[in-house]
Amino acid sequence: MMLDRNLKILLVAAEVTPFAKTGGLADVAGSLPKALATLGNDVRVVMPKYRPISDTIRTLFDFPVQVGQRRETAVLRESMLEAQMGDIRRTVPVYFIDNYHYFDRDNMYGYWDEAERFAFFCRAVLEMLPRLNFQPDVIHCNDWQTGPICMLLREKYSRDPFYSRIATVYTVHNLRYQGNFPREVLSLFNLGMEVFTPEKVEFYGSFSFMKAGLVYADVITTVSSRYAQEVQTPEFGERMDGILRKRSHDLFGIVNGINIHEFNPKTDPRIYRNYDINNLADKKDNKFALQRELGLPERDVPVIGMVTRLVDQKGLDLLDEIKDELLQEDIQLVVLGTGDPHYEDMLRRMKEKYPDKVAVNIGFNGILAQRIYAGSDMFLMPSRFEPCGLGQLISLRYGTIPIVRATGGLADTVVDYNPETGMGNGFSFDHYSAFELLHTIRRALSTYRDRERWEKLMRAAMEADFSWNRSAAEYLEVFDRAIMKRREWAQIA
Ligand code: ADP
Prior knowledge:
Elements: E1 8-12, H1 24-38, E2 42-48, E3 58-67, E4 70-85, E5 88-98, H2 100-103, H3 114-132, E6 138-142, H4 147-157, H5 161-164, E7 167-172, E8 180-182, E9 202-203, E10 206-208, H6 209-216, E11 219-222, H7 225-230, H8 241-246, E12 251-253, H9 280-294, E13 303-310, H10 316-326, E14 332-339, H11 341-353, E15 358-362, H12 366-375, E16 378-381, H13 391-397, E17 401-405, H14 408-413, E18 427-429, H15 434-448, H16 451-463, H17 468-489
Parallel strand pairs: 1-2, 1-6, 2-5, 6-7, 7-11, 11-12, 13-14, 13-16, 14-15, 16-17, 17-18
Antiparallel strand pairs: 3-4, 4-5, 8-10, 9-10
Helix pairs in contact: 1-17, 3-4, 4-6, 9-12, 10-15
Adenosine-5'-diphosphate binds next to helix 1, strand 13, strand 14, helix 12 and helix 13.
């Protein structure tokens, strides 16, 4: 059965660039819909309306949402994303679910009633659809906050013909964040204990938002092929590997793209000096300006950058182990990040001990991030695991050579440099070990000294295509598959 390609798609995510962002999920949720829209699909996005999102967005209507015993009100607001590819221009409507009680708070996440906030959100997303007169072919759910939508569709809404044909695709951006809560949370969805079984949503005694997505979605994706394999093993499976193995025929990996217009060293207004593949020498001005801004000596030494959440996943314990040996080298290390206080302190101490070699900025700063991508020679991502990773993709685009651990999306996108053949676009190591990390950085440093080889590497990096168009085409295939499966199941094909 061939499906027409003009699909109606609703993407649901807890964060969407440029409205709200804490990590890579936001970039995907802000970019993929634009690419899908320019390919001719009717794509819409929905997310919560957090406090900092400007009030200038348009208000559409409000409607009641049942959350356990509470009857809450959702206010639906709307803004949009502008998409452009060549001469094609499209707008993607972005809906915001607003509720003073749940979302008018200082932060996006981290509250005692997290389960209730996102239970409300999931139910509101489904309730808004008939009121908008929008019946998607597929709902694309992302990460734990949206998992229960897949469950609600099957367990609660499927008898209603408006909902029964809607297929679901559930994308895991990071399996570690699962949204596991006490079983009582189930009552927020007004579902009975009959779904609280290991085959359904029970997860080691808890109700798991993530599992509700993994069990009920028609198709599951992860954000790289390697990660799709890895999550089926106990080492990476975060205790979900059993269910993922069971669903392996419905599990696909699609590597994220990046917005190549936003991340373009030739036009990026955030960096000190624009450059491209024909003006690689201009990249160096970015290095000197970065050193000046961060108070490092202005010298032509290899600068290694890191822009990252400071959490265990990102391999900071490896950096901790090798720091003293590494900083014997004539290099500079520039870190921007925020997160675990333990790693923030570790970095501050490094900076105190090596003030001429280390610059540390604790915080989230989109402008400085770009200046680091542009001004560094190398970009470090020694992750313990990495579902896709955007940092290495952005750094490749800026001709900044990634040094990564070959896991998840890092393994799919960074090809280890082979000095014999000259092939590769970065440096990678297999085992999560400090020794291998140090050795790999040293390999990069010695290659750097050979200007000709290094420039060849920079060119290979900048020429790689990680635009969204390729990923969007793969998502469309997966959406088709989910829709066919749903229609067959509903016997209305
Ligand atoms: P994750 O989603 O696990 O945080 P990714 O590499 O997929 O990791 O995405 C991280 C994104 O967030 C990148 O675009 C990176 O540049 C950005 N980022 C991370 N930390 C910061 C920070 N402190 N300031 C600015 N941008 C950051």
